[in-house]
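User: For a benchmark we're assembling, each entry needs the component sequences followed by a predicted structure for the full assembly. Here are entry 17's components. Please fill in the structure.
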Amino acid sequence: MSDADRSEGESLLKRYSTRALVAGVTIASVVALLLAGLLFPDSLAGTLSDALTSRNTLASALRLSVPIAFAALGGIFAEKSGVINIGLEGLLIISAFSAIYVADITGGVWIGFAGGVVASTLLAALFAVVTIGFRADQIIAGLAVWLIALGLAPFASQVIYSSPNTPTVATTGSITVPVLADLPFFGALFSASPSVYMLFAAVFGSWYVFERTAFGRWIRASGENPKALDTAGVSVTHVRYAAVLISGVLAGMGGAALSLDLGQFTGNGPTMVNGKGFIAIVAYLFGNYNPVGAFLSTMLFAGLDALQTVLQLQGIGIPRQLIRITPFVVVILVLALVGRTRLPEAAGEHYDTEE
Amino acid sequence: MSAADRARKALSRLVDASATERILISTAALVLSVLIGAVLVLVAGRMTTCTAGEAVYYFGTGFCYDPVVVFDRLFLGALGDPLSGSWSPNGQFAVTLRETTLLIFTGLSVALAFRTGIFNIGTQGQMVVGALATALGVLWASSLVSGVVGTVVLIPFGLLVGGVFGGLYGAVPGLLKAYADANEVITTIMLNFIATGVALYLVSGVFKDPESAANQTVPLPEFAQFPALLFGGRQDFSLVALAFGLLAIGGLYYVLEHTAFGYDIRTSGVQPEAAEYGGVDAKRTVVASLTLSGALGGIAGAMYVMMVLGTFQTGIPSYGFDGITVSILAGNNPLGVGVAALLFGVLKSGTTVVQFATDVPPQLVGVLRGLIILFVAMPEFFRLLGRGLPGAGSKPEAVATDGGTVTESGGETDE
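Assistant: Structure for entry 17:
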């Protein structure tokens, strides 16, 4: 028993130290880069640190992190309750398309946003019925959700608009806080799309739910020790249904924000979502199921993505196609370093109430 | 005699017992998906616009798409209209068999990993890597030989190159899973994106065919491609390739059921702890299984290059993802993969016929693919449905037919 405790403690230590290591190396290299840039403004380091400290980079990092972070928050809710939702990508796709479609027929951007959320929630409800009600394998059902959305969104777009890409609609625009928006670098925080502020609220809200409310404790218990929750008189099934539906709502907000930010849905190949749902899964694993942690690791991925866009504009000699795959390579590196994160005890398992 | 043999017998009894049920579930999933697809076609037909003359009427309502026509084209069209009397091997049936051949390999790739308890979502990427390697390798080698000798030498060589590179790419998630505990579902999906990106970079740059506007490699000479026997050359189908596919089915069946390696794989998939206790090296099995699985995906890529395109072009169709459906539909059984690949080959080839005959978008088959996976994943649903039907347990005749397509099934009697 003490052996088990010790090995648990050791792996805990190892886990945290790898995370700390990754975070430390990231911060150290950023600082080194900034220093080098300060000393040699004309070198590559100078260009890089210019890009890093530009408020455009922060602005686009925030914009790029919106869909990923929303999906990651959704993933946390589902997985903490014991349902691994690998279909986040599909939820993003279906909401991105539905948001544009509803916005197009009603003319209202925010009605479109709501439409996207509803579509994603419906698909999540289907996923919940299949996995919780009919005990389907969660991974396979999640894949099915992804593949259904991957087919359905371009199919619908082709039927309605005769092209996998929709026409453009009005975008959500941006909210600017006077004075604060003029700050260097951090000004980007105060002149952003409404979805960025909604994301901040959602990150805080999720954190609050998990740390401060009974519902948050139920979700944790449903994933860690469903029997105890059952004994305490709370229905595991209901908690799991609620958690999966919340994941649908959150992912739907991410998808709707993604397409309405551009005012268009593009459905060629992997669609405009292009793996963001899967990056979200890695983001919350790396963030150790903590909403704030998930947001910060999303910013790491999105920051890299933003940086590559800035570098492309400045004509740094790395081919565009290769720069584009950096987030995916980083995801693999992160997974290789962090390894298995401790899943909730009962994640992936079906729970039968004993009556 | 040994414990291993006894365990194998017990396991095969278990598999046999559920085989009937599994076939029933797969069939029901397919039928249900097609029905939902029909509803989807009707709904889509309400949402699009057409003239009154083009519309069909059901229940007093007009629809722009007719699901009966859609599914008639989808299934009969894919078989080259066998009922019309003008059937020829050069028609759509050849396209169906071509799709089937490719799906056999991607399906086997996914199935092998599944049997080890691993989700290889990366068959698509492994196929891209194998296809690119084959296109470049065979192009280089084709300057050394020519004529009939060239065909005899280059085709096995191309398959080997595709298999080796696909296998190496499959080994990456295997190593990551075995030694870094990285979840293979995520790593294989990421590796798909990376394979596509790197291939696009290479083919739009260094290896681009200077005479083509598309992002593709220099086309292979005619003798470096699969010969079209019996079937017309226009459909890009070769019986030789299909024979390779059937051989692969038999081979994988034999490896899984009659070798020590196959035993390791199956026990790792069913009972990982017991397998480890029984002396199976779990890490080695994971890496070996994903490498072999990647090799099968790579061979699918080689087939695509040497049979269908004759060059590598970016934007390889999603045979890898379809392989997931094929494998799940087949209950991850190599023999079942043959039947499921044919079924899904019909769906894929029929989609192009549907596109010609109607305005229904070809993405329909993508939706069907997802629905089939969803339904096969929820056997509980069909058990619930079946509880009301007393005749649900009757033996379907499909059980025996998949054995007939296998060339090496003679080996299984020597127990």
